[in-house]
Design goal:
It is built from 16 helices and 15 strands. By secondary structure, it is α/β, with parallel strands linked by helices. The chain has a nine-stranded mixed sheet, sandwiched between helices. β3, α2 and β4 form a beta-alpha-beta unit. α1 packs across α10, α2 runs parallel beside α3 and α6 packs parallel to α8. The protein is globular and about 60 Å long. About 40% of the residues are buried. The mean pLDDT is about 95.
Length: about 400
């Protein structure tokens, strides 16, 4: 299970938004639907997830109906403020959404679309464990309105999967990709690099295997050791080595090179999408994640889910049983709320926007910080030509040292 929830102000039990919150009725709006169930917990994971033995009275078979109650509450809250908007993106994350029957996911999707409407061409993504994807599941999801499947591959190398406590069968990744393709879904595969015992050649094997699957999108995340996880405890006891920063940098550079050669363009530090020119102009970037990085509005449904509307943030109670109890009592499941001040909002804006290939307008950076951009160019961290045109874009070296760039622009 994830660590403690953030500190914040108490959230109102009726879920109403502050009267002085100025909501832009034309701002894009997204929905995140959290499915907190997993068969086993991976040793590196600190997401808000629960195995069957940890549910303590919460019912997996009743989860869809419970989440739909929060959708109804959200519609009432936003309708009261005249802020109902069609959804630009919907994302089912977890946990393992595909542990639920496809029909349950379809009912939740139907409820959220029924509550808010959905924009033409909207992106609807479901995260999936490859062992849970069959042709029938993919077809049912597509029929319900899903447009994209994000498959948790992580690695193609058995000993690396074992180090991550991943239990899926590597060969089922291809089966899942093929099922999604036949159903007409766009496909993304997720990879993790830097696991204990993973060599550069292991990583090369995973990359080439992922490329050979011919997906539309590939995410590649450096393994981060989160406090409280099994892997953190193993490292602290000296049972496995901590990630090697230099090796992870080499792995990132290899990923960027191989993916670029295969026709993928980076658009965020950890994400690559097929070039639109190779797909008849289709844009395969994750529009849902781009909504987060651009700081637009979204409502997060489910236990532990976070929401953001017009600069206000709130988060739900973590445990599925507590979440269900709140909604059964006619109360909002929100546990806390906060409104970051201008300095915190600016830090987050730079942290997120600077990671994107589209870059960040220099005039969005404080005047004194803009004077440091020339030094960042000289250090090979920022592209010179876009900067001269008013946009900050990271170089490959800058992507490896993105945190240093953010510190330079915010200290």
């Amino acid at each position: 299970m994830a660590g403690p929830l953030p500190l914040g102000d108490p959230a109102p039990s009726d879920g109403r938004l502050p009267a002085d919150l100025r909501i832009d009725p034309d701002a894009p709006f997204s929905a995140y639907l959290h499915v907190p169930f997993c068969r086993v917990r991976c040793g590196y994971c600190d997401f808000n997830t629960y195995t069957a033995s940890e549910l303590r009275g919460a019912r997996q078979d009743a989860y869809a109906d419970t989440l739909i109650q929060e959708i109804d509450l959200a519609r009432g809250v936003l309708a009261e403020r005249g802020a109902l908007r069609p959804l630009s993106t919907v994302f089912f994350g977890g946990g393992t959404p595909t542990l639920l029957p496809a029909g349950d996911l379809g009912r939740m999707l139907g409820a959220v679309i029924g509550a808010f409407g959905i924009a033409d061409g909207a992106e609807v993504t479901v995260e999936a464990n490859p062992d849970t994807v069959t042709a029938e599941v993919a077809e049912e999801l597509a029929a319900a309105g899903v447009t994209r499947m994000s498959i948790g591959m992580q690695s193609a190398v058995p000993h690396v999967l074992a180090a991550l406590d991943r239990t899926h069968r590597p060969e089922n990744v291809r089966t899942a990709v093929e099922a999604a393709r036949v159903a007409g879904l766009a496909v993304s595969v997720d990879l993790i690099y830097g696991a204990p015992g993973e060599s550069l050649e292991d990583w090369r094997s995973s990359l080439t295997t992922a490329i050979d699957l011919d997906p539309d999108h590939i995410s590649a995340y450096a393994l981060i050791i989160e406090d409280g996880t099994k892997l953190a405890r193993q490292i602290r006891r000296g049972e496995v080595p901590a990630p090697d920063d230099d090796l992870q940098a080499d792995m990132y550079e290899l990923a960027d090179a191989l993916l670029g050669e295969a026709g993928f363009d980076w658009y965020e530090v950890s994400n690559w999408a097929r070039r639109p020119s190779d797909l008849g102009g289709a844009d395969q970037r994750s529009r849902h994640n781009m909504a987060y990085w651009r700081g637009t509005d979204w409502w997060g449904f489910g236990p532990g889910a976070h929401s953001h509307v017009a600069g206000l943030r709130w988060w739900n109670v973590k445990h599925p049983a507590a979440y269900a109890q709140r909604l059964a009592a006619g109360e909002s499941p929100a546990a806390g709320t906060e409104r970051p001040d201008a300095e915190a909002a600016q830090l987050e804006r730079i942290l997120l926007r600077s990671r994107m290939a589209e870059g960040m307008p220099l005039d969005a950076i404080a005047a004194d910080a803009r004077t440091r951009v020339a030094g960042l160019i000289a250090d090979g961290l920022v592209e010179a030509v876009p900067a001269l045109r008013g946009t900050l874009v990271l170089t490959l070296r800058g992507r490896l040292l993105a945190d240093a760039v953010v510190r330079a622009l915010t200290d």
